[in-house]
Design goal:
two-stranded antiparallel ribbon; two-stranded parallel sheet
Length: about 270
């Protein structure tokens, strides 16, 4: 019975989300970003006068995570071991940079919108979209580097007990993301249009993967799969749960704010 219910639920969730989300392909991408990002215009990259689906930090985080997962899928296959301590140390640095820049940026925002006693707290530096992009993409790499081996540990009956990310591939991945970041900073529509799609779909992919693994754990199917074809039902379940979460947050936020744009009254 569940093999029939899950695809039906997926179709219903997808249909409902398509109905309530804004028109056009970029409108659908906006609705994905809307569920996870503040979408403040001044903190986002622009194609002409149209902001990307996610802010600069989230754009970096989710496009980098999506690319890092795809990169590992080709380079690492079923490798299931976490990276070495040295790589973990670099990932921790990425995480700390993300946290420090995010906290400093949030303080700057609060001082602009609230003022008062917060004015007495100095900022480390004036935040900007360049730092948001680079710290966000570092965090995206860190997320993917940890998530990918965890996924393999949960799925496969026979594991490849080697690190999913070693120094050579790690260096290639960092260089690839750095180059893409520099291209994003050119503000060229030729770059920003693909990044809009990759970042929004990267967001959706991460949610789908997390909910897929959650489904597998709940159904007690850990380490029972031999190939990708056997994953269609858990994957469909992950898609359904991800769409339901996005749909719920979109409806709730839309109810409170009345707009698909950034939170009203927040700028800078």
């Amino acid at each position: 019975m569940i093999k029939w219910l899950v695809p039906i639920a997926a179709i219903i969730a997808f249909g409902a989300w398509m109905y309530i989300s804004p028109e056009g392909a970029l409108g659908k991408l906006d609705a994905i970003g809307y569920a996870v990002c503040h979408r403040i215009d001044e903190r986002s990259f622009q194609i002409g006068d149209r902001q990307l689906p996610l802010c600069a930090r989230c754009t970096g985080e989710f496009y980098a995570a999506g690319i890092a997962l795809i990169f590992q899928a080709f380079a690492s296959r079923k490798r299931s071991k976490l990276p070495s301590r040295g790589i973990i140390a670099v990932l921790i640095f990425f995480f700390l940079a993300f946290g420090i820049d995010g906290s400093n940026s949030y303080l700057y925002l609060l001082k602009q919108t609230s003022g008062g006693a917060l004015e007495q707290i100095p900022n480390l530096y004036v935040p900007n979209n360049v730092l948001r992009l680079f710290t966000g993409s570092g965090m995206g790499i860190a997320l993917a580097a940890v998530l990918y081996p965890v996924i393999n540990q949960s799925l496969w009956r026979e594991l490849d007990d080697r690190p999913a990310l070693e120094w050579k591939n790690f260096g290639i991945l960092i260089a690839l993301v750095a180059v893409i970041n520099l291209l994003v900073l050119t503000d060229s529509p030729i770059v920003l249009y693909p990044i809009a799609y990759i970042s929004a779909l990267g967001t959706l992919s991460l949610l789908v993967l997390v909910f897929t693994i959650l489904w597998i754990i709940i159904m007690k199917q850990d380490n029972t799969f031999d190939n990708i074809r056997q994953l269609w039902l858990p994957f469909a379940s992950g898609v359904t749960l991800a769409l339901l979460m996005i749909l719920s947050i979109d409806l709730l936020r839309l109810q409170f704010t009345g707009t698909w744009n950034g939170f009203p009254g927040l700028t800078g």
